[in-house]
Amino acid sequence: MVARLEPAITPRPKTGRDKLLAAALDLFSEHGVSGTSLQMIADLLGVTKAAVYYHFKTKNEIVLALVSPVQEELTALADAAEQQRSRTARLDTLVGGLIDLIIRNRSLYAVLQGDLTVAHILDQQGVLPVLGTRLIALLAGPDPEPEELVAANMLLGGLRDAGFAPQIRQFDDETLRGHMLTCARRLLRYRRPQQPAAH
Amino acid sequence: MVARLEPAITPRPKTGRDKLLAAALDLFSEHGVSGTSLQMIADLLGVTKAAVYYHFKTKNEIVLALVSPVQEELTALADAAEQQRSRTARLDTLVGGLIDLIIRNRSLYAVLQGDLTVAHILDQQGVLPVLGTRLIALLAGPDPEPEELVAANMLLGGLRDAGFAPQIRQFDDETLRGHMLTCARRLLRYRRPQQPAAH
Fold it and tell me: Is the ipTM of this complex over 0.95?
C-alpha cells in the first residue's frame, strides 16, 4: 500500500517541468487559475517567460498536465477492475483505488476543484464524462438494476465531494480512507474480499 | 406527499414574471446562460426588452430568481429537521425532503448544473456554502464521529449527482425517489421511522 500513497505531484520536484508544475499549483492555490499568468510562474521560479514557454505554451496546457496523471490513473484503475471476475473483487479494486486516488490528490483537488477556469478547460477536453460513464458501468455491474445505478452514481459523486469537503479536511489520510471505504461498502453492499492467508 | 411533488417552477405560468422565468429556462437549456441575452428572452415572449427589464435588470437576477425558491426550501427543510428530537426523525425529515427537492427540480438542475456562468453567480451570492455546512451538521448530528461526517458529505454530494446523472435520467420520479431513499438509509444507517397505525 505504501507505494500507492505517493502523490502524483512529486513532493521534491527535480526536473524543470516538475518545478514549473509545482510553482503553478502554488500560484493557482493563491490566485486561482484565471488570476495566474505564465509571467507570474516565471517570476516565482526566477526564470524567463521563454523558459516557461519551452515546456508549456498556454496555461491550459499546465492545467491539463496537472490533471492528466489523475485521468491516466483512473483509466488504469478501470482497466484493472475490468479484469476482475467476481463483483466483490471488481468493486474492491475499483472503490479502493478510487479512494486512494482521491486521497493522494487531496491538495491538488482542493486547489482545482471549484475553479471555474479549470472546469471550463476540462469541459473542453471532454475526457471526464467518458471516464465517468465507464466507472459507473463498472460500479453498477452488467445489466444493473435501477438501484445499483443510483448507488453507483451516489458513490462517485459522494467520494468526490467527501475528498475535499471542509468538514473533513482535518482528517489524516488513513482515517479518511477507512471511513470512505466503510461508507462505500455500505452504499454498494459488498464486503471486503477474503484476504489470502499470510505465509 | 402529492403536494410536495409540485415543481418549484409553475408548469403553467400565469404571471408575466413566471412566463419570463420559464422562457429564460428554455433558452438557458438550449444556449446556456452565457449564450442567452435579455433580448432573446424578450423575442421568445414577443415583448419588448423594456418589458423584461421591468422584472429583471440583469441575467444574474433571473438565475437567482430561478434558484432562490430551492434555496428557501432548503432553509425551511433544515428548520423542520432541527425541530425533530430523535436522530431517526431528523434524518427522515431531512433526507426525504432533500430527495423530494432534488427530484422536483430535476429539469431545473439539468439545465443549471454544470453551467459555469451559474456556478459563478451562485459563488458570488455565497448562500450555498452556508446552507451546505448547515445540512452537513444536521445529517452528521451533534458531536459527530469522523465516520458520520464522511457519510454526511458522501450523502450530500451523492444525492446531488444522482439527481441528474445521465444514467438515471430515464427513471421516473417515484422509482428514483425510492432508490435514493434506500441508498441514503444504507449510507447513514437509519431505518424508516415507524408509521402511525392507519385509522
Answer: no
